[in-house]
Write a structure and sequence with these properties.
Blueprint lengths: L1 E7 L4 H12 L4 E8 L5 H9 L3 E3 L2 H10 L5 E4 L16 E5 L14 H10 L3 E8 L9 E8 L6 H26 L2 H4 L2
């Protein structure tokens, strides 16, 4: 079982998904701590309601001090809108979810609705999500899981977002379970 730190910046929808799946016994993880770079993030209130230690922390150094006080072996970025630098011993243990099929629509500036608007503007027939290990460059670490989402003619960016988030709710827990089963070196190489 992986011991998770969840880093978020907003509403905590991914935290909700993790919590529900842990309760159902389908996510091989335990949430040890939740952090947000935004003091008023709804995700922090949800974490406290669920009974998880939850903290506001500005920057990687402050976040890492809090993480060090909890027994964490996997960091999950869940809508965390800052570039995060983990402590050295967790450098290869940071997962991120991205709302496109990397390498499309990724990198600095591509997050949230900006991705879905770009997909719509390009007229794509599919979109999707990618769970990958994070490194020091946005959206460049090894890919663990990708899910493709067919788009209907006339889907607006908001409708694309709904479809992609539904795929994220499946892909992220699957990726955590795969990492729990295989370990990080499977993706990074020994």
């Amino acid at each position: 079982m992986r011991k998770l730190a969840v880093l978020l910046s907003g509403s905590g929808r991914t935290l909700d998904n993790f919590h529900e799946r842990i309760q159902a016994g389908t996510l091989n993880g335990e949430i040890k701590v939740v952090l947000s770079n935004a003091a008023d993030a709804l995700g922090l209130a949800k974490a406290r309601k669920y009974g998880y230690p939850a903290f506001h922390a500005q920057g990687s150094e402050a976040s890492n001090r809090i993480i060090a006080a909890h027994d964490v072996d996997l960091i999950c970025l869940a809508g965390y809108l800052k570039l995060y630098s983990p402590p050295p011993h967790l450098k290869r243990s940071v997962l991120n979810i991205h709302p496109s099929l990397i390498p499309m629509f990724c990198g600095a500036g591509y997050y949230g609705m900006a991705v879905h608007r770009a997909v719509h503007a390009r007229g794509l027939k599919v979109s999707g999500c990618t769970v990958h290990f994070a490194n020091e460059v946005y959206d460049e670490g090894p890919i663990v899981v990708q899910r493709c989402v067919p788009l209907a003619e006339g889907d607006r960016p908001e409708e694309i977002a709904v479809k992609v988030f539904a795929a994220e709710c499946e892909a992220y827990p699957e990726a955590i379970n795969l990492v729990a089963a295989r370990g990080e070196d499977y993706w990074w190489g020994a």
